Amino acid sequence: THLDGRKLLIKSSPGDIVKPMLQGYDPLANNEGKLEWEAIADSDCPDIETVAQADTTDVDTLKKACETQLKRKGIDVGVFVVDSQRAYFKTGSREEILAAKKKKPGSTMYVLTDPNANKDLRLIKAVQGEGMPTFKNPFVHGNLFLLLTIEFPEKLDPETQKQLSALLPPPLNVPMKTGDEEEHFITDIDPVASYNSNKINMQGGGEAYDDDEEEGQGHPGMGGAQCKQM
Question: What mean pLDDT, rounded, does the chain reach?
Answer without folding.
Answer: 81
